[in-house]
Write a structure and sequence with these properties.
Blueprint lengths: L2 H54 L2 H15 L1 H10 L2 H31 L7 H29 L2 H28 L5 H26 L4
């Protein structure tokens, strides 16, 4: 073998070795990018809704706001898992997503029941409706980011988080419905819709749990 042949073979071996490493690094970077973009979108969404809640006092909006905030927080364990490039960490991140969804359901249920026991007027209905629309748009965009990346990267945790955000988008529409029925004079409908949102969140919890348990990562 000539020196040139030896050098070429060595270069090819190095290139092949790099080929084995690069997909893992690329997957980590793409996962982190998806998590970061979804976090940014949901963070802006939750901040906008928080401003409207402070003015309106709607428990339906509060339930959606709490959930969106918890949804954004799930980016932390997912981001860590992708940074570590660990299948085990990714699986634990998926379980953290499920736990966050469940906790948000419990908080939303408590707030809705408290508002039923201690009724309060809901104000700024136009702003409330706009906040619900913002929640729908933010969650829909986050869902597309997470689901597309989750399928490309074969990540059950990210797919579960995408399904979670997509369902949240429809839950946010319930806030718009709350503004409409309260405008008709049905104040009690606001906490009742908050309870309805809680039921939906619990269903999302179960579906996400099944996705994470039944999934696999590479």
């Amino acid at each position: 073998m000539t020196m040139h042949d030896h050098h070429s073979a060595h270069s090819h071996a190095q290139g092949h070795s790099h080929g084995l490493i690069d997909p893992s690094i690329k997957r980590s970077r793409e996962g982190l990018r998806a998590v970061a973009w979804a976090l940014l979108v949901l963070g802006i969404t939750a901040a906008a809704q928080a401003v409207v809640f402070a003015a309106s006092g709607s428990v339906a909006l509060l339930a959606d706001l709490i959930h969106n905030g918890g949804d954004a927080a799930t980016a932390i364990p997912l981001g860590i898992a992708f940074a570590l490039r660990s299948a085990r960490a990714e699986r634990w991140a998926g379980l953290a997503v499920v736990a966050a969804i469940f906790i948000s359901a419990c908080v939303a249920a408590y707030e809705a029941v408290d508002r039923l026991v201690n009724p309060q007027d809901v104000d700024h209905l136009v702003a409330l409706g706009i906040a619900g629309a913002i929640g729908f748009a933010g969650n829909w965009i986050a869902a597309r980011i997470r689901t597309r990346a989750g399928r490309q990267l074969d990540s059950p945790a990210l797919v579960a988080d995408g399904a979670h955000a997509r369902a949240d988008a429809y839950v946010s529409l319930a806030v718009v419905a709350s503004a409409a029925v309260v405008a008709l004079g049905l104040q009690v409908a606001d906490p009742l819709i908050g309870l309805g949102i809680t039921v939906v969140i619990l269903r999302i919890t179960w579906d996400s749990w099944r996705t994470v348990r039944g999934g696999h990562t590479h």
